[in-house]
Amino acid sequence: MVFGRTKRRETDALRAEFVANRETVRSWTARWECPEVEWPPFDEVPGPWVVAPRERKRWLEQHAPFLDTYRWLLEARPVAGGVNQLVAEWEFGAGHEFQQLTIRFRSVLDPDYLAEKLALGIHAAALKGWQDDDVHDLYDWLLEGVNQCVGAGGVRAQYRTGFLLTEMSCGAVGPKEVITTTRTSLTDTALGGAPLNSHGSA
Question: What pLDDT score was predicted for residue 102?
Answer without folding.
Answer: 98
